[in-house]
Each structure stands twice: as structure tokens, then as C-alpha cells.
Write a structure and sequence with these properties.
With about 600 residues, the chain is an alpha/beta fold. The protein folds into 3 domains: about 5-240, Glutamine Phosphoribosylpyrophosphate, subunit 1, domain 1; about 245-440, Glucose-6-phosphate isomerase like protein, domain 1 (Rossmann fold, 3-Layer(aba) Sandwich), CATH 3.40.50; about 450-590, Glucose-6-phosphate isomerase like protein, domain 1 (Rossmann fold, 3-Layer(aba) Sandwich), CATH 3.40.50. The chain is built from 21 helices and 27 strands.
């Protein structure tokens, strides 16, 4: 997720581009850059860190000109650095990109073999070289761009310019958004609507497989193969704040809805469908460890700690490696066993959580091998770990973690499959079935998201509760913990998560008519036993909300409310069950009028002990 802006017209392009990038900085903020055409040349300015640094650079080295492109980056391939910042240039081609080119290693090898040299670690630079290569064979920019994108695998929103064709921008889309803003004698392009709202409200949204040729005189749409496309513009009436949230009321709701795509981005390029394997190039250097390791310490805080609890289940079941799950704040103070037979796997969205980082440092000091699952590229935990697997979920703005959690679960499952296959504990047919289910998971996730109105109505009924219990079993028990954490941090309602079987050992004393109990009841998760736990709650007057994939009259009889979710592979149920719980917390918070995106007393990244 990066921010993209482009402009062609009569204004000074750099002003339009910087203003657009300011409005998109929430999409990426590790580096930024601009390219502007003037006097037959395209000049580029780039800078690491916040957009302010680029603005300072432009004050000293301005970029006059009437057409150009700008980008604010959220690193995926290659750490945040000036060399890796966009725009990228190859010969006469300059471009910006949002997305991931999966086959970039093969393409780079091929281009290097033909004598091309690269100045960055990015997948994006490959595309600039491919287009330049096609232009060197006599193609114009449009034809060269078409020929290049025909070779790309993965997702991309691209905006390309060249000094050979002044006053023209070409945009192309595959699985990553691009919108074109229509002006009078000027036109715009961006990754998101907010960047353009101060200039126009008439927008054309590109569909997957489409390209646009943008000049000050007009915009022409076509398919990648050149077939013309006709589309009426849409008039956007969103206010600027709503636009930043893509029309959603809160970042949290936007991020909840981004989960199917975020899950695809975590899996992208890592599933080998035919062999039933998972390839984790990022962890390649740690392959030997996976074979030898006798024990894994999973360490994290908060929501990421809940992901680790599910991860322990995945790794022990599929790879038969014993796992221990620790809070970052506990790990280093409890004199853990740190020896060459174990390894530490840290999980963190931000990669900056002080307690988790301290655990990584403690492991390093003891010469224990470390790996990390992070969302933020080149974050402290990512840099301090021996190997890192990025979730590629894009920036998570809301303090309450949602898409980061679901992508951490996905990454942990990929690791479990990877180790299980390497160690021979997971048969190819079982892993093939799991991979197939993972590939289809975004569909059921969208079905679960489509229950938002139903869950909103449910939230209204329980909005005045002062306590909540969440119960589940097995790998879904951590989802009960996560459901309780989400509810308390968003709505300030006291909530507890328990293994369902543990109720009778104490918490059942809390049950009364004023206690809603959310029961996670998937078909494959000790169904009959959890059903009898529910009956224990019912007989003590508790109000039962069941989240289940089963259509069972016995459940209807006992439950006050039933949320029916789609059935998926049993190991993927934690992901599906998380969605209604996130929505429940969200809507309860909305109806209680709390600050959804920035709950009181909390910070997005906890960088102090
Ligand atoms: O950035 P991290 O994943 O390391 O953050 C860990 C926790 O601080 C975080 O998950 C926190 O619990 C969230 N607010 C939960 O929604």
C-alpha cells in the first residue's frame, strides 16, 4: 500500500503532487519522491522518511514543470532508502508502482543477463527496465507498457511517463486501485480519491486489466490488449475525511473490510498449489533451523500474542515442534531456557513493540536464532531478527488491530505448513487440501463481512451490557481472548475470554441474566462438548450469543442469538470466527459513542516498556 499521484495540465505539477501525497501519507510514510517533466527531461527528487523531508528537498531543489508523478512508499521489497524510493527510472522511462511483482526475481535475472544494471532492491525497478527495453525495440510508450505488463505476475497499480512522450501519463491496474480525476484542461491520477478531491469530484475508476492514457486534453481507457473501453465518470460526494477512509466511517471498519485482500497479499507468491508446498523465500536462510529446531518460543504482545497462541496450535499440529507462547514483557524476566536447540519467533504488526523487541535482543544475546513476522518493513524487530516474514497487510491506522491479526494467523499457518513439509510431518495431500482452502478463503471472509448489518443489530441489543464473556475451545480459544480484548479496548466494557471447558472451574459464578456470553461453536471444534458448556450457561440464566457454522436446532433452542458464519477448513475457522467478533466490538463501540480509531489510553505502537 503506497500513495500514488499523477498530474498533467497547466498548473505547476509539483504543487499538485505534493498536496496529493500529503493527503495520502497515511498509506505509506517511509520515503517519498516526485518526477516532473520540463524542457524535454524528466527530473526526479526522492527522500527517505516523512513527506516533510521531500518538501524540504524541493524547497532547495525545485522541480518546475506541468506534468509529473509522485509517490509515498510503504516498503514491501527493499528497505526504506532513497535508492528504493519511487519514482524509478530506467533509460527514458520513469514510473511509480503500488503492489507486489511476484516474478521479479526471474525478470531481474533475465534483464541482468541482457546487461541491464539495477540501482535499487525493489520489484518496481524491473518494470521500468522492461518498458525501456520494449521502447528500445521501437515501441511507443503505450505499446511498450502493454508488452511489459503482459510479463508481470502479481498486483500492480502503475503510472508511467517518458521524456519521449511529453504531457502523457499511462496508468495500469491489476488488483490494486487506481482512480483518474477529470478536470478542465487538466487531468489527474491517484491510488485513492482523497488525493484528488481538492481539484475534481469527477472520477473514473480503472478496473483490473485496464490501462489509461492521460493527457491534459483527455483520458482514453483500454484493456491491456488495446481494446477501447467506454465508461461514464462517477461524481464523488464524500467529504475529505470520509474519503481518506475510502468512504468508511472509521479506519477500523475499512481495515476489517480489507482483510480478504490483505490475506491474499500475505499468501501472494508463497503457495505452490501443484506440489502442496509453501515457499517462504524470506525465511530461506533459516531453512536449516526449521529442520533442526527442537522448540520454538513464540513471543508477542496483545493481539499478536493471541495470534501466537493459534500459531502454537498450527505448528504443533502440522510440524510437531513443541512451542511455548510468551508475552514479550514476561519472556526476558522469567529466565527462559535459551539454548541452541530452540529458536525465537517474534510476532509484531509494528515491529517496534518494546517488550517484543527486548525478547528478540535477549535471544540474540544468548545466541539463539531469531525469526519475526512483521507488517512494517525494516522495523526494529525485522532488522534485529535473523529472518523475517512480512505480512504485507498495508498500513494499519486504527489502534485496534484487525487485518494485522488475520494476516499474522495466515503467516503462522504458512510457516507451520512450510516446517511440516520440510520435516515430513505433513503429507502432501493434507497440505494440498489446506493450500486449496487458503486460496478460497477470501470468498468466505467476504461472506462473513456481509453480515455487518446483522451484527450491527445485535450490537444494539447488547450495547448496555457492562460485562461480557467469550468462550471457545482448542485453536478457537485464542479467538475468544481476542474477541474480549477487542471489546474492552474499543467500548471499555469489561470482557474476559476463557476456554469453554474452564467455565465450571470458576467463571461460571459470574453468570446471570446481565452477562452476555459469546460462544464460538465451529462444527469441527469439540462441538458436542462446547454445546454442553452452553447449556451450563443457559441453566444459570446467561444470555448466549453463538457464533457457529452449524445449522442445529439444539443450538437455536439454547441460544438467544445465533451468528451463522461460512464453513471453511477447520484450521481456517479462527480467521472466519474473528470477523464477526471484530464487527461486534466495532458496532458496540459506535453505539456507545467511544473513539473507535483511537481508544482512550492506548497508542498504536507501544515503544516503551
Ligand atoms: O505492533 P504489535 O503487533 O507488536 O502490537 C502489539 C500490541 O500492542 C497490539 O496488538 C495491541 O494489543 C492492539 N491494540 C490490539 O488491538
Amino acid at each position: 500500500m503506497c500513495g500514488i499521484v499523477g498530474y498533467v495540465g497547466e498548473r505547476e505539477a509539483s504543487g499538485v503532487l505534493v498536496h496529493g501525497l500529503q493527503l495520502l501519507e497515511y498509506r505509506g510514510y517511509d520515503s517519498a519522491g516526485l518526477a516532473v517533466l520540463a524542457n524535454g527531461d524528466v527530473s526526479v527528487r526522492r527522500s527517505v522518511g516523512k513527506l516533510k523531508n521531500l518538501e524540504n528537498l524541493l524547497a532547495v531543489e525545485p522541480l518546475p514543470g506541468k506534468s509529473g508523478i509522485g509517490h509515498t512508499r510503504w516498503a514491501t521489497h527493499g528497505r526504506p532508502s532513497e535508492a528504493n524510493a519511487h519514482p524509478h527510472r530506467a533509460g527514458r522511462v520513469v514510473l511509480i508502482h503500488n503492489g507486489i511483482i511476484e516474478n521479479f526475481l526471474e525478470l531481474r535475472a533475465e534483464l541482468q543477463a541482457s546487461g541491464r544494471e539495477f540501482s535499487s532492491e525493489t520489484d518496481t525497478e524491473i518494470v521500468a527496465h522492461l518498458i525501456d527495453d520494449e521502447m528500445a525495440r521501437g515501441r511507443d510508450l503505450a505499446a511498450a507498457t502493454r508488452a511489459a505488463i503482459a510479463r508481470l505476475e502479481g498486483s500492480f497499480a502503475l503510472v508511467v511517463m517518458s521524456s519521449d512522450e511529453p504531457g502523457k501519463l499511462f496508468a495500469a491496474k491489476s488488483a490494486t486501485p487506481i482512480v483518474i480525476g477529470l478536470g478542465d484542461g487538466e487531468n489527474f491520477v491517484a491510488s485513492d480519491v482523497p488525493a484528488l478531491l481538492d481539484y475534481t469530484r469527477d472520477m473514473l475508476f480503472l478496473e483490473d486489466g485496464e490501462m489509461a492514457e492521460i493527457s491534459s486534453a483527455g483520458v482514453r481507457l483500454s484493456l491491456f490488449d488495446g481494446t477501447p473501453v467506454e465508461r461514464e465518470p462517477r461524481r464523488i460526494t464524500w467529504d475529505p475525511v470520509t474519503a481518506q477512509k475510502s468512504g468508511y466511517k472509521h479506519f477500523m471498519l475499512k481495515e476489517i473490510n480489507e482483510q480478504p485482500q490483505a490475506t491474499i497479499d500475505t499468501m501472494r507468491g508463497r503457495l505452490l498449489v501443484e506440489s502442496g508446498d509453501v515457499t517462504l523465500e524470506d525465511l530461506e536462510s533459516s531453512n536449516d533451523w526449521w529442520n533442526q529446531v527442537e522448540r520454538i518460543d513464540l513471543v508477542a504482545c496483545g493481539t499478536a500474542w493471541h495470534a501466537c497462541l493459534v500459531g502454537k496450535f498450527f505448528i504443533e499440529k502440522l510440524a510437531r515442534v513443541p512451542c511455548n507462547v510468551d508475552y514479550g514483557s514476561e519472556f526476558r524476566y522469567r529466565d527462559p531456557i535459551l539454548d541452541g536447540r530452540g529458536m525465537l519467533l517474534a510476532v509484531s504488526q509494528s515491529g517496534e513493540t518494546a517488550d517484543t523487541l527486548a525478547a528478540v535482543e535477549a535471544a540474540r544475546a544468548a545466541k539463539v536464532r531469531t525469526a519475526a513476522i512483521c507488517n512494517v518493513v525494516d522495523s526494529s524487530i525485522a532488522r534485529r531478527s535473523d529472518a523475517v516474514l512480512y505480512t504485507h497487510a498495508g498500513p494499519e491506522i486504527s489502534v485496534a488491530s484487525t487485518k494485522a491479526f488475520v494476516t499474522q494467523l495466515t503467516a503462522l499457518l504458512l510457516i507451520a505448513i512450510h516446517i511440516g513439509r520440510r520435516r515430513g510431518t505433513l503429507a502432501a495431500d493434507a497440505s494440498g487440501e489446506l493450500i486449496e482452502s487458503l486460496l478460497h478463503l477470501p470468498g468466505p471472509m467476504r461472506d462473513a463481512l456481509a453480515m455487518a448489518d446483522e451484527i450491527d443489530a445485535l450490537a444494539r441489543r447488547y450495547v448496555n451490557a457492562e460485562n461480557f464473556l467469550f468462550v471457545g475451545r482448542g485453536l478457537n480459544y485464542p479467538i475468544a481472548l481476542e474477541g474480549a480484548l477487542k471489546l474492552k479496548e474499543l467500548s471499555y466494557i469489561h470482557a474476559e475470554g476463557y476456554p469453554a471447558g474452564e467455565l465450571k472451574h470458576g467463571p461460571i459464578a459470574l453468570i446471570s441474566e446481565t452477562m452476555p456470553v459469546v460462544v464460538l461453536l465451529p462444527k469441527n471444534g469439540a462441538y458436542a462438548k462446547t454445546l454442553s458448556n452452553m447449556k451450563e450457561v443457559e441453566s444459570r440464566g446467561g444470555q448466549i450469543i453463538v457464533v457457529t457454522d452449524v445449522d442445529d436446532p439444539a443450538v437455536e433452542e439454547v441460544a438467544n442469538d445465533v451468528i451463522r458464519v461460512p464453513t471453511v477448513h477447520s484450521l481456517l475457522m479462527p480467521i472466519i470466527l474473528s470477523i464477526p467478533l471484530q464487527l461486534l466490538s466495532y458496532f458496540v463501540a459506535v453505539h456507545r459513542g467511544t473513539d473507535v480509531d483511537q481508544p482512550r489510553n492506548l497508542a498504536k505502537s507501544v515503544t516503551v516498556e
